[in-house]
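Need tokens for this chain, all 367 residues.
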Amino acid sequence: MRHLTFNAIRADQSKTHTVVSIAATAKDILTFAAIERIGRDEEGNLSGFQRPQIATHIREIRDYLEKPDAILPNPIVVAFTKGVKVTDVNGATCRIKIDLSEGPLGLVVDGQQRLTALSQLENKDFKVFVSIVICRDEAELRRQFVLINNTRPLPKSLIYELLPGVENLPTRLEGRSIAAELTDRLNHGSYSLKGKIHQHTNPSGFISDTAIQKVIMNSLNDGILRDLLRVEGGRDAGLKIISEFYEAVKATFPEDWWDHTPRTSRLVHGAGIGSLGYVMEVLAALDGARTWRQFAKGMECLQGRTAWTRGHWDFGGGDVRHWKAIQNVSRDVTTLAQYLLRIVRADIRARRSKGSDPAPLLEAMTG
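Here are the structure tokens for all 367 residues:
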């Protein structure tokens, strides 16, 4: 059986994990570990962990490592779920045997850019420290990846995309995990936003995944999703509402939606997506909107009073801004949302005065 053997040092940390450190060349590391890029199969199932390589970053590391006095004390972190045997020798010292019969069984959890740069060196004898973590299963491996990299300068959107497959998250990430899961479903299921949300696994999308997640998180905290998720089937019902709403947005502002990017239209910009999320809440809760036609009816009052792609926003009190001046910052999103909500609420009051009664949210969804 093919295998590699290393002298190692064991670190007593978690009782549920084995953590050891070795010194190895890039060639040896790539013999027992792989860099698995994040991606999705044809059914939309998530696999892998790592972001795409950053060529400039790798080149900078390689150029530095080519210097005769270069050092790289930062370890490469590799996780295994099987194929590693640890034999104690004396105290903290041990020997590990890594099975190679099935190919690389380890996954690089941290240090992919450094490892790639190392593999390009002419000096193939340059060794680095490798921290090896032995996890009980794939789910635990994924959890360790998220927790390790959440404190590093890794793209937050990549971390968020991985969250739905991770259990026992810190409290601060639980709400984001639900939002990320629903965003995934909106982007890969039969919904109006399918394929339109930009993710690491869907770079062709033009709507920011974090913008949609913020809409969902606001709703989870103090909106329609907060109540819906407490009833059976509420998650699906909530997704349906969000999908119907953005279908109505497309129908209400077609010239500002189609063939646009956040640079050319503030409708598909984080500011537009975020501010319209509050409009969705008001129309669903106060106007009883459920279908895209009902949402579209509630937004008819906004037609001719927006500046998504041209002109100026007149927010009142002398606050007039060019459409490009609206940015995806809390202050601008709040100002834009308040402007839109004033118009929508006034329209609801006007229609109510004519005898239109809204349907209660939960009764309509569960009745």
